[in-house]
Fold this sequence. Notes:
The complex is a heterodimer of chains A (272) and B (266).
Chain A: H1 2-6, H2 10-20, H3 23-41, H4 53-66, H5 68-100, H6 102-115, H7 124-131, H8 135-159, H9 163-171, H10 176-214, H11 219-228, H12 232-260, H13 262-270
Helix pairs in contact in A: 4-12, 5-6, 5-8, 5-10, 5-11, 7-8, 8-10, 9-10, 10-11, 10-12, 11-12
Chain B: E1 5-18, E2 21-34, E3 38-42, H1 49-56, E4 64-69, E5 72-73, E6 81-84, H2 98-104, H3 113-126, H4 142-156, E7 160-164, H5 172-188, E8 192-197, H6 200-206, E9 209-213, E10 218-225, H7 236-239, H8 241-264
Parallel strand pairs in B: 2-10, 3-8, 3-9, 6-7, 7-8
Antiparallel strand pairs in B: 1-2, 1-4, 4-5, 9-10
Magnesium ion (MG) is lined by residues 49-50, 164-165 of chain B.
Amino acid sequence: MTGQATGRTTGQAIKSIVLETRLSGALLLLFLIILWEVLPRSGIIYARYFPAFSTVMGALLEGIRSGEILKQTAISIYRAFCGYFLAIIIGVTLGTLTGTIRWVSDLLDITVELLRPMPSVALVPIAILLFGTSNSYNISIITFGCTWPIFVNTFEGTRSVDTQWIDTARIYGATRFDLLRKVVVPAALPYIVSGLRVSLATSIIIVTVTEMLASFKGLGFFIMDTYNGYRIPQMYSGIITIGLVGYGLNWLFMKAEGRLMAWHKGWMAKSV
Amino acid sequence: MPGPTLLRAEQLRRTYIRGESEIAACANITFSVNKGEFVCIVGPSGCGKTTMLKCMCHLLKPTAGKVFVNEKEIDRPPKEMILIFQDYSRSLFPWRTVLKNVLFVLEKKRLSRKERLDIARSALSAVYLSGFENHYPWELSGGMQQRVAIARGIAFNPDILLMDEPFASVDAQTRSDLEDAILEIWSKFSQTILLVTHDIEEAIYLADRVLVLSGRPSEIREEIQIDLERPRNQLTTKEDKRFIEYRHHIYTLIREEGQKCEIAGI
Lengths: 272, 266
Ligand SMILES: Nc1ncnc2c1ncn2[C@@H]1O[C@H](COP(=O)(O)OP(=O)(O)O)[C@@H](O)[C@H]1O
Ligand SMILES: [Mg+2]
């Protein structure tokens, strides 16, 4: 036993550190960044269209210092948030009503099934006709696109609530509204949350696309504007920023989900 | 000695539609429970016990017949009566801690925050679960979960507690512990309890009176007064000559009912 333990070579030790910790991920990222630095510099790829990492970072820092990137980011996040927020209200409300009331589901079924597969960006012309290039244009399309995942998951979740939970609450005098608030929605929350996660990513996609197509502010606009102005490093800094925004929002979401849904993880693990 | 009638079922009948045919789960159930009594109903599995209890609480509408609580006919789940299910895992709320599961039943009552907490805590301590307030139900064993469900029931302070095979999903040792726990609660809180079970010994051990159900569609086949001293004891009570006679008698009744069902092809 001891012979084996002491007999481990340094090579094996390094291998186990790299593979058994999260170091491997960081190393891969580092490697990709080095490639990104070296390939354009060595002329293997064309640096004008694909500037080195340090060049892009320089543009990013300059954009942050001058406040331009931050301003555009704030606008995009604001639009995404407004659309997302409206989608939550509409999606959860409609999903809950559809999942719990038979006639509402009969009423909405066909209309929903027709609207749902529609790519939200196909609505861009309509939204421009209605709202011009104001924030409402971006927000309305984000709301449209983000509502469906939330709606569908809320519907599924509220429809499949165990009837014994409902019976239990009824025995203890719950009114219909109590049932919704204290049983149906909490029980459906794991479903609702997975809809929310999908929609969060969708909101970032749609805000970017709508800004690229017809806006004069926001990160999507910034990316297209720098592209048209041939400010390539700046263009890359905009793309990097939108990626970081998506990453950061998802990270926040997972943190919040981990806290709120801890019961669900534990419960699922126990009830297999 | 028996108190006033608290619960009365009159010719209760409930049928289910399955495809073309109509199946009667309970046919014609009439009985009453007096204040302070511990009544057990025994019947074979599938004879309509759960259906009957759900009708009594108005979770299901009876096809015919009436239920009276304190001589008032009920038309909605009555505040004076609660039902504890067999399957605790599907009646406790997994998103609420043990304490909050108990608090759930107090949220409709006009009480201060402190009163609610006091009631919930003392209900939990009555089932020996003090110290588990902040656990989630699924972190506890099956027996402990059923204790939480019982604590929730007594915290609500109903006049009568209905229990649907409450100890059928736990192991034998836990089961006798829970039987003694419910007896303790029954005498400590002067509760009235109607407990349904398929276990003959459990029924005799707990009850003042045992009602034997016939096979489906069920009716009350016979009513047996249990004259065994209290407090009861898992060993000596079950060794008592009278206990063995009761068991013999009820077992024979239920066997007959089982054979009738087989002959009728149910
Ligand atoms: N929702 C239902 N639809 C149709 N049949 C049912 C339904 N619930 C119960 N039954 C039938 O009614 C009978 C009695 O069921 P139940 O009351 O659960 O019996 P027990 O609790 O005594 O086991 C069973 O034969 C069952 O198949
Ligand atoms: Mg049953």
